[in-house]
Design brief:
The protein has 177 residues and is of the alpha+beta class. It contains 5 helices and 7 strands, in the order αββαβαβαβαββ. The longest helix is centred in the middle third of the chain and has 21 residues. The radius of gyration is 16 Å and the shape is globular.
Length: 177
C-alpha cells in the first residue's frame, strides 16, 4: 500500500514539475501527457494465466513510428485479447513503450497515448475499464529484444498487455477472486 501511495505521489510530483515548465498541451513543440496510473508492477510474467494469454492472444500491440492509432493488425490482436479476457476474466496492465528516438518526456506521453488507445479499444469490446491499468515507460524501460536496429525499434513501439490477477466481470462492478 505504501509503495502505491509513493508511486502516486511521485507521479503527481513529476506531472506538476513538467506542467510547470509547459503551457497548454505543448512543451517545446511536443505533446506531453504523463501516465499517472496506480499500477501493481509486481506482475509475474511466468504466471500460468499470463503464459496462456500470450500463447492464445499475444501480448504485443504494434504501432507505427510516432503514432498512437491502431492498425488493422493491432485491432486483430486486440480482438483476440478481448475474446480471451471475456472467457477468462482477469485484471490487466497495459504498458506503453517507445523506441530510443525523441525525448524522455515526449516518449512517456506517446507511450501513454498508445496504452490508452489499447485500453479504449478493449473497453469498446466489453472489458470493464476498472480492470485495465495503464502505465507508460516511454523509452526509459525498453523491452529487451535482439535483432537489427529497425526490428529492435519496432519491438519498442508497442503496448504490452499483462495479466495481473483473475476476477469476475459482472454488470454491477468488479469482484476479485
Amino acid at each position: 500500500m505504501l509503495n502505491k501511495i509513493n508511486r502516486n505521489l511521485l507521479s503527481a510530483f513529476l506531472a506538476g514539475a513538467l506542467s510547470s515548465c509547459c503551457t497548454g498541451e505543448k512543451c517545446s513543440g511536443r505533446d506531453v501527457d504523463l501516465a499517472t496510473s496506480d499500477v501493481d508492477l509486481s506482475t509475474d510474467a511466468n504466471d500460468p494465466a499470463n503464459m496462456n494469454f500470450i500463447a492464445t492472444a499475444g501480448n504485443r500491440v504494434f504501432f507505427d513510428f510516432d503514432r498512437q492509432e491502431l492498425s488493422q493488425e493491432s485491432s486483430d490482436t486486440l480482438d483476440k485479447q478481448a475474446d480471451w479476457l471475456i472467457k477468462s476474466p482477469h485484471k490487466i496492465t497495459v504498458e506503453g513503450y517507445c523506441d530510443d528516438r525523441g525525448t524522455s518526456e515526449y516518449n512517456i506521453g506517446l507511450g501513454n497515448r498508445r496504452a490508452n488507445s489499447v485500453k479504449d479499444y478493449l473497453i469498446s469490446k466489453g472489458i470493464p475499464a476498472g480492470y485495465i491499468e495503464v502505465i507508460s515507460y516511454g523509452k526509459d524501460k525498453p523491452i529487451e529484444v535482439m535483432g537489427s536496429l529497425s526490428e529492435v525499434r519496432r519491438q519498442n513501439r508497442v503496448a504490452v498487455t499483462v495479466i495481473n490477477e483473475s476476477a469476475t466481470y459482472s454488470n454491477s462492478g468488479i469482484s476479485e477472486e
